[in-house]
Fold:
Amino acid sequence: MTAVTTPRSSAASPVQPVEPVQPGRPVRILRAASAVLASFLAFLAVAIVLGAYVPAIPKAGVIGPVLGGQYPFHLALLALVAAGLALSARRAGLVRWGGVVAVVSTLCAMGALIIGGVQFQAAREAGVHLSAGQVFTELGYPAAEPDTTETFASPEGEPLRVDAYLPAKAPDRRVPAVVLAHAGGFHTFDKSDLRGTGRWLADHGVAVFAVDYRLAGPDRPTWDKAPQDLLSALGWVQRNADAYGIDRARISLGGMSAGGTLAMNTGYRLQNGTIRAAEGATPAPPASVIGFYPGTDVAQMWRDDVAGTREAAQMYTGGTPQQYPDRYREVSPVSDVRPGLPRTLLVVGDRDRSARPATVTGLGDALRRQGVPVEVRELPFADHAFDDVYGSLTSQTSRQILLDFLLADAR
Structure:
């Protein structure tokens, strides 16, 4: 029997390597775009989060407390989007770069959520009934309208107007009221900035009168005019208390930033008898005084020169502290601290660069030493004008603090 054999080739056939399939141009463009966008968003998130936690970092310490403090949950979403894009780029071949960006972005999201968590806890401690919807949808001033707008004075022929936000009237019930002066470094903005706070307080039982006052300019100091305008506004509300169903014994005076400085200075001087109305009767001192992130010492504002404070101080007073020391002393709330002042509320953000927390808490300590009832609240991860974003956690918290303070003597 003949065996059948299979002939062998003289040399084994080599195994040919499989060439990797190169992605097409659209895929490469998409991968590059994802990597670039992920990197940009991650860089932005890192800058904001680091600035929120460490305000001393140049530039990042300016934007971080503002954006991180008012939009922590939006920031977390932004960071998570960056992480998702980075993972997509990693799967497309940018393994090391995509992995690093994904990790960094995820850490930023966690940092932002911690900010939100701290603010949420502060809100709970303040008794706030939080609206999650407002956090994501109310990113500016709401479109609130006053119940009425009136002219309360016309100094030098310049009409000064007041927006009244009024609670629903009830028989045999008198409500507390607050006269509020707007922010703006003594030289800008107007009463409409207070519309969100005004409407919310009115809906919760407090009448709000948001007022304009004469604004300073480069050649128009108003250090002796703006306090007179607040006197006029306070007197107008006191005279019209019956028409608006207001309890005359519970009319307060307050304001935000420069408006808070102005309100505190005017209210304290009224109580101390160091200011009188230039025209007509001098109003009674307010029941209480409120300062949200106020400048407590205008000379200190000039020295600090942060975010326009020096320019504001000079426009308001007409010069420097060296030129007009008496003016600076007269318009600074710290100059009026003595026993017998009205009950006071001070609210400031712990990241505020313009109205530094130490100056606000220092004023609170000085008032306590004089026996003045004072409440000082320092909001976490909050910068100047923390209530500009109406739906933010800090804004919702500050409104509740203000409401509780104004209603306190009615309980």
Notes: The radius of gyration is 30 Å. Residues 146 and 165 are 5 Å apart (CA to CA).
